[in-house]
Design goal:
Layout: H1 22-29, H2 33-40, H3 48-61, H4 67-74, E1 79-84, H5 88-91, H6 95-110, E2 114-119, H7 125-134, E3 140-144, H8 152-159, E4 163-166, E5 182-185, H9 187-200, E6 206-210, H10 216-229, E7 238-240, H11 245-258, E8 264-267, H12 270-282, E9 292-297, H13 300-303, E10 311-315, H14 317-332, E11 341-342, E12 345-346, E13 348-349, E14 356-358, E15 360-363
Parallel strand pairs: 1-2, 1-3, 3-4, 4-5, 5-14, 6-7, 6-8, 8-9, 9-10
Antiparallel strand pairs: 10-15, 11-12, 13-14
Helix pairs in contact: 1-2, 1-3, 2-3, 6-14, 7-8, 9-10, 11-12
């Protein structure tokens, strides 16, 4: 029985009819089955006029490629794992994660690739991730917000799948771990700019609420703070935070208790800055009159909603996500590191040429 009939309107097929095949698409397009296969699987070397005919026939018949058969031909699953070793509550409450995932999703969608989100709540979840990756369910992996002891690099290496990281991996300096491609913001340079702004405003006792010491974004921003202060660096003006509003509030309270004379604060992210701002108000400190405040990230849902609006350092988080996905897909297609422009302008590669550092910019609002 034919899969379509001459009476079947374009763009539809009989509701009870069988699923259209490559042969049906080839007959509708007036090309060979091999040509349809090459077009559907994204191969090159097919004239554009034939590509257009095949695409029209696919749309008219409602043809959907057989995923299993396509995987056998291309040796690709059409899926990429996105691994985030953070508690679920943090992932869905911190706008940073939403932006990064959105950037990744946009790029994968544009290349007809599925996103498989893998969350790691506890150490036992690493075994689940390892088994899934080793099972050949995905073509590659993207991982971000990693901590020093996270086993994700060894897991992806054992699974033999290409991986791109978000953030400079702490293990790249270790001789027993191989270098891996990553996309990061200029955390150290952005922190220097933030602190120099506060110094230029005449502030002399600039405190820092630091990010986690087991993540390079936290240590790099602390190093940028040190760079800007130079010999004036004072360890008593540094308090540890955890990239959450609550940790920023606790750190601010400790700083005020230890150094009530402080007149400026650089917080390593906007969420900690929002917690610090709340505590400063509770202690009767005017911002920016008594204490100037600068954050990092420029999460508009945070920075523009504080009172007063937060001066901060902007990083293109969504652009980083898109570039991570682009680098991975480009590598899967046999290409090297992308050249030229990123989502936020010209890209700076690392000395080994395998990774990208994206620029940061200062956004002046009302807290400094």
């Amino acid at each position: 029985m034919p899969e379509t009939s001459p009476e079947t309107p374009a763009g539809s097929r009989p509701p009870s009819g069988p699923r259209p095949t490559l042969e049906a698409v080839a007959a509708r397009a007036g090309v060979s089955r091999a040509t349809v296969s090459r077009v559907v699987n994204g191969s090159t070397g097919v004239r554009q006029s034939l590509v257009d005919k095949v695409h029209r026939a696919v749309e008219e018949l409602g043809y959907v490629p057989n995923h299993a058969a396509r995987t056998l031909v291309t040796r690709r699953t059409g899926a990429v794992a996105v691994i985030i070793p953070e508690p679920e509550v943090r992932i869905f409450s911190d706008p940073f994660f939403f932006r990064q995932i959105r950037g990744i999703s946009k790029e994968l969608t544009a290349h007809d690739t599925q996103l498989v989100l893998m969350l790691v709540e506890a150490s036992g979840d690493f075994g689940r991730v390892s088994r899934y990756l080793a099972g050949g369910h995905v073509d590659g992996a993207l991982a971000f917000s990693l901590h020093t002891e996270d086993p994700i690099p060894s897991i992806t290496r054992r699974a033999g799948i290409p991986t791109v990281y978000g953030g400079r991996p702490v293990w790249t300096a270790s001789r027993d771990r191989q270098a891996v491609p990553y996309v990061d913001a200029d955390n150290r340079g952005g922190a220097r700019v933030a602190v120099r702004l506060l110094l230029d405003l005449g502030r002399t006792r600039v405190a820092h609420i630091a990010g986690p010491r087991d993540q390079t974004s936290g240590t790099d921003r602390l190093d940028g703070y040190r760079d800007a202060l130079g010999a004036a660096y004072d360890d008593s003006l540094v308090a540890q935070g955890g990239f959450t509003p609550e940790s920023g509030a606790r750190a601010m309270a400790h700083l005020l208790e230890r150094r009530p004379d402080l007149d400026a604060v650089f917080a390593a992210n906007d969420l900690m800055a929002s917690g610090a701002l709340r505590v400063l108000k509770e202690h009767g400190r005017r911002v920016p009159g008594d204490v100037a405040l600068v954050g990092f990230d420029d999460m508009d849902s945070v920075a523009e909603s504080t009172d007063p609006p937060l001066t901060t350092v902007r990083q293109d988080v969504e652009g980083q996500g898109r570039l991570m996905a682009r680098l991975l897909l480009h590598g899967l297609d046999g290409g090297g590191l992308l050249d030229g422009e990123g989502a936020a302008g010209p890209l700076a590669t690392t000395p080994d040429g395998d990774s990208v550092i994206m620029p940061t910019t200062l956004v002046r609002r009302s807290t400094a």
